[in-house]
Design a protein that fits this description.
- The complex is a heterodimer of chains A (about 220) and B (about 450).
- With about 220 residues, chain A is an alpha+beta fold.
- Chain A contains six helices and eight strands, in the order ααββαβββαβββαα.
- In chain A, the strands form two sheets. In chain A, strands 1-8-3-4 form a four-stranded antiparallel beta sheet. Chain A has a four-stranded mixed beta sheet with strand order 2-7-6-5.
- In chain A, α5 runs antiparallel to α6.
- The mean pLDDT of chain A is about 90.
- Classes of the chains: A alpha+beta (about 220), B alpha+beta (about 450).
- At the A-B interface, α2, β3, β5, α4 and β6 of A face α1, β1, β5, β6 and α11 of B.
Chain lengths: ~220, ~450
Amino acid sequence: MNFAAIRREVVRRLAENGTRVFFSSDDVDDAIQAGYMELSDATEWHEGHVDVDLLTDRPYYDCRSVVGAGFLAIRQAFDYQTNRWLLPTSVRQFDAHDRRWERVTGEPQRMLFRGLWWVGYWPRIQSQTGRIKQYYVDLPAPLEHDEDVPGFPDTFHYGLVDYALTELWASDGETAFALAAWQGYLETEAKLAAWVQRRAQAARRPSMGAITRGLPC
Amino acid sequence: MLTLDDLRTIVRRRRLGDLTGAIWPDEEIDLQLVNAYQALANDQHVFFDWVYLDLRPRTLTLTQAWELDHVSTLLMVVITSTASGLFGETQRWERQLPAARLGGTDTGVAQYTAAFEADHDPGPIVPFAPLLDGPGWFTNPFEADNGHVATLGRPTTRVVRRDQIGGVTDGVANYTAAWERELARDVADDRDWSGPATSTAPWEFTDGFASRALVDTSLSALYELPDTLTDLVRVTWDKRGTDALEAHPMQGVDSRYEITQGEVYGFLWEKDGLRTLRLVRVPGVAADTITVSADTYGVMRGVTDLTADTVSGSWGGPRCIPGQHPIGGGTYGAGRRPYLDTHNVRVEHFRHGTPLDHGEAVCELPDRYAVYLVDYAAWKCLLRNGPGQDVVLAEHFHQRWIRNTARVAQRIDGVDREETIVLGGDGVALTTRPPRPKLPWAYGSVVK
């Protein structure tokens, strides 16, 4: 379904016709956009990577600047100079191993994450050379034109309709309708999240000694 | 970035359907948005930040803590009298003491540092003296001769800039010598005393003038934590992690831990107040500072005092300085105050976001997370007894708020879920250090 089709379906479900129109087209569009963002946020389907230029002795990098305003979560990191993946490590583990870990300098080997948007690479490099390939999850670009299509599979597009109805009916005090639509949305969200997390499961070959029960033939 | 006005509009339009404020006034919605903002900061570790304690001898520019509420009026101090502004004592009776106790020549008395204080009720200013002397804003005669301070004392009206009086929030103290507290114990309430401090500007120490003035250069073990702090994560000294200690066991391990000087190896956040951090041991060396050799005004333009790296470009202000982390909630503007880790204490913590105290205030959360606040506000507004109440719908938004906060917690701890495979082990667990030695459980008590 494209943006126009989703909009038509929302209006049809609202049962607004003729002169009895309560919700404007802007209201409907905004509700659909909100649904797109909510579904993307909950399922983390929009994956990407960015090359982070390493800065001299930089403690932490702001993911809001490095990735963008739609940044959601960090994923794996790869060092182009050493051709190695950085090991995610917490500060507690560092302190448990060596209290003076901050004084070590060199090519990054591990990755830290503080708060919601600060990522650090340890050791800190002492020159402004090199790049890290940082994988992440963020929000997709909003639907702008009628022909724009949500980035996840068609099967889950109807979730945007359910979310939009939830929001519109809730703002109108139609609680029962809103909650019913919300249940429909939650089902779609759960299915999309499961599909995103386990999308390669069917293709995985069983390894020696592993349990194969439950996997499709 | 969304402002408070934007968030309120979203609440009205997409949650409550009350566009004109007929049922829920702006103040009510704003209050709930701010509550949500604070709850998110308090319950989830969202806003990571750090601050330096800047270990250096104590200075004073204020004599009472309540003056901080009037900081804006301290930005410019107008000198209209011939008063030199020099003071070395805070009470007249100190002049009766031998010169040796005063640490030098008699330099004058002052109990306040800004002229407007004289207009206030003397009660909160001075513990017990009926008269007010002052204002005083420097403690040694050489300050007037030195190029750091403008020619104070001329019988003309002159405006003194903040930097000439050492900064308006550079410490609160109302006595200059430790022994004053002993002598005045019978006549003054201990709780009104703050100090001691013997200088009015930090440059007196960093520029090497302290020895000329024979002032006490010892450092304190107690430092103020930011009001916005919600959780203390880690404290380092000289780029080395320190231990979070407990007061009761420390009494057994080292009964002199409050006075022993040396390298800082731990900290206590107990018994000294909610916003006071105690360092163990008492720092013996002041933190290293940066000497800026260029102008002391305006935006930092030359970085040669900070780094030998080649500067990229020749326009504008520096945007990234090696080793420095942007402190505070802002992501814009030029760097103003670089800190060094050497002999300095860094407090890594989580804090509240930048305040949402007016309509144009920008929410520090990214837009997607700022929208989470809307569900909380809708929950509370719909729950309120009266017109528009909808308990069932309120509970729906309550559940959405719980979902949102759980998602935030999951994202913050998400790094642990991204372990890569390392041959020979899980690649994450590092060698664990043995715990710090503790006394036996029954130490010092009679065991029956």
